[in-house]
Amino acid sequence: MTFVVTDNCIKCKYTDCVEVCPVDCFHEGPNFLVIDPDECIDCTLCEPECPAEAIYAEDDLPEDQLHFTALNAELSPLWPVITEIIDAPEDADEWNGVKDKLKYLER
Description:
This protein is an alpha+beta fold.
């Protein structure tokens, strides 16, 4: 099993989760983070660190977020690894909780 970054991370991109990851499985895109499913060791450390509550265990994904498993797998090889906290976008708090943000994903 792996953990999956979902819709609410888009345009929020808080990076509290990356610092606790012991295997550096987070990858950073322009306005979203993803988890490399081949690197994730299911340690559970990242999930409680996410201020946007955008990280789920694969088995616990809400029905409307299932497609993010494939999206994380697709984008993780394309984006660089991120291991340290960076500042969230200035408007991150305004985007936190906004529904259906996939259309805003920048690749």
